[in-house]
Amino acid sequence: MKLLALSGSARTASTNTAMLDSFCRLAPPDIDLVLYHGLADLPIFSPDREGENAPAMVNEFICAVHQADGIIVASPEYVRGIPGGLKNAIDWLVSGDEIIAKPIVLAHASHRGSDMLASLRLVLGTVSHRFNAELFVQFPLMSQTPQDVRRTLETKGNTSMIVAFLKEFSTYIVQSDTD
Ligand SMILES: Cc1cc2nc3c(=O)[nH]c(=O)nc-3n(C[C@H](O)[C@H](O)[C@H](O)COP(=O)(O)O)c2cc1C
Questions:
Q1: In this predicted model, what pLDDT tens digit does every residue of 78-113 receive, in sequence order?
Q2: What positions does the domain NADPH-dependent FMN reductase-like occupy (predicted)?
Q3: Domain ranges of the chain
């Protein structure tokens, strides 16, 4: 099972990225979860630059999405919405085939951000009919350093919650596959 993790934060010390990094470290052996690092470097989306005209970075991103059996997204809220970099990345996927049946779930590294979460649920439910809004995990990690995020998540109780989340997502991917 190959999973891709996307963080909506370009911040070096991002709690969302650190949380996803812990997910990668805690994933059971049969789940290969990889964090995508190129989101902040993707060019601004334009329909004029799709297909044959797509920049190499965009093709690499689309390929990473294509090769993943499922995607986990985690993002901060910026000005009550989805950060531009994450929305830009999603926009690059919309007219292709890679996203439409891709299983997607959300995780969240803050006790705040409900407007962004509502908006992201709407967007992800629009681009993929296998977005699973019920499967969701949230930790109050706002303002923690990446080291503290790791310490908090890699304790027994939180670790078992994360492993259970990843296993449930893996089961959902298999069970919702109608191909
Ligand atoms: C430009 C900017 C706008 C923000 N807007 C909001 C907001 O509207 N609502 C909110 O709850 N937090 C807002 N925040 C706080 C971030 O969502 C919060 O610090 C988040 O945990 C950062 O995630 P990260 O550690 O992954 O970068 C904003 C932060 C920045 C830098």
A1: 999 999 999 999 999 999 999 999 999 999 999 999
A2: 1-126
A3: 2-172
